[in-house]
Design a protein that fits this description.
By secondary structure, the chain is an all-alpha fold. It has one domain. α1 packs antiparallel against α2, α1 runs parallel beside α3 and α2 packs antiparallel against α3. The protein is built from three helices and no strands. The model has no long low-confidence stretch (mean pLDDT about 90). About 15% of the residues are buried.
C-alpha cells in the first residue's frame, strides 16, 4: 500500500474513533436530558431529541465501525428512542383550594 494511502487510512481510522466518542457523548447527554423532561413541551425534551438526532447522524458517518460497536450503539439508540417516546405529552395539573389557618 502506498505511503499516501496508508496515511489516509490512518486519518480515517482516527476520525471514526473521534466520531464514535461524539456519538457516545450525545447519547449520554440525551439520556440525561430525557430523564429531566417531564413533558414533550419541555425544553429538556427538545434538547434530548436534538442530541438523539445528532447521534444518529454522526453514527451514519462512521465507516470503519466494528459490528459489535455498531450493535451496541444501535441498541443504545433504540433504548433512548423508547425512553423519549414514553415522555408524557402533557401533565394534568390539579387545583386545590388554599386553606387559611386562623
Amino acid at each position: 500500500m502506498p505511503e499516501r494511502t496508508q496515511k489516509l487510512v490512518s486519518i480515517r481510522r482516527r476520525t471514526d474513533q473521534d466520531l464514535l466518542v461524539l456519538v457516545s457523548r450525545e447519547l449520554d447527554r440525551s439520556v440525561r436530558l430525557a430523564g429531566m423532561a417531564t413533558t414533550r413541551t419541555s425544553p429538556f425534551f427538545a434538547q434530548a431529541e436534538q442530541s438523539y438526532a445528532r447521534a444518529t447522524n454522526l453514527l451514519s458517518m462512521i465507516s470503519g465501525l466494528s459490528q459489535g460497536d455498531r450493535l451496541r450503539i444501535q441498541s443504545s439508540l433504540k433504548e433512548l428512542r423508547s425512553r423519549l417516546d414514553q415522555v408524557a405529552a402533557f401533565v394534568t395539573v390539579e387545583r386545590y383550594p388554599a386553606s387559611v389557618a386562623s
